[in-house]
User: What shape does this take?
Amino acid sequence: MVKIGCKYGSHRVISPIGGLPQAADVVSNDPEIFDNEILVDVEALNIDSASFRQLKEEACGDPEKMKQRILSIVEQSGKMKNPVTGSGGVLIGRIEQIGSDLTGKTEGKIGDRIVTMVSLSMTPLKLVAIEAIHMATDRVDVRGKAILFETSQFAILPPDIPDNIALAVLDVAGAPAQMAKLAKPGDKVLILGANGKSGMLSAYVARKKVEPDGLVIGVVRDPVKQQRLQALGYCDEVICVDACNTLDLLEKALAANQGQEYDLVVNCLNVPVCEMSCILPTKDQGIVYFFSMATSFTKAALGAEGVAKDITMIIGNGYTAGHADYALQLLRESPELYKFFEENY
Assistant: This one.
């Protein structure tokens, strides 16, 4: 008997009925798949930066408490959706089973090792155990199963890039791909959180896109990371300032651009309450790209209205066509970028 579920995964939603998996409170993580689903044997979770930071702070940096919290979230909701940040991350695993209706229709085959390109916040997940938490890289080694829907995107792990590096890059692949679409020659670009995964990739792409007359300014909080990023040459200048201090950031950002506002501002931070730090430096008719999942879009919308900023604000959609291949190709073309991910992930 053919057993076909909704291609968007609504058949897995337990609460609230009629919803979709990402917004749902609880989904079914039953490993028995529908004919248009894929079963994945999960090896690791790469929890998104905002979520991992919140979990670490909640557990006071204790890995054992973090393990219990993650297991509790997955047990209660059937997926890894942080109830505070609302975000998830991605996973790495091996295709174990492909539903009969997807056979021959999907890029992957049984046995392929993949990285999911959809959020854990919408991916049915059943964990047997957490083996280890890597505090410096947001990675959680696990044993478990996950379900991919008919529309769920994934990338096959490349043979020429180590797993940890590929996982780190693919987790934020939407950021550099969107930067490539948004940045134009001559643009003045400001990147908050330019020293992290998404920020570093975005800075590299921005440098290529705005030449020869554009400007790329990075914002970091750590003086050591400021020096490292400056040495790479992706940014014309790297400002060291707490992005939560809006007026201090605004003053330093404008000074770096000869007192002028920016065409494009990108938020790659993993902390909340930085919406206005992105909005105020943006010129009228300019663009703010909120890649950070710590963003409050209510605060962004009402904040821009409150200061009379006529700007375009883009939600950090992690998907754009070809983003996985594009992000991995950046590593292949830039030894310096590859070295950064090799040293840090």
About this structure: Residues 63-77 form the longest helix (15 residues). The chain has two domains: 10-157, 174-344.
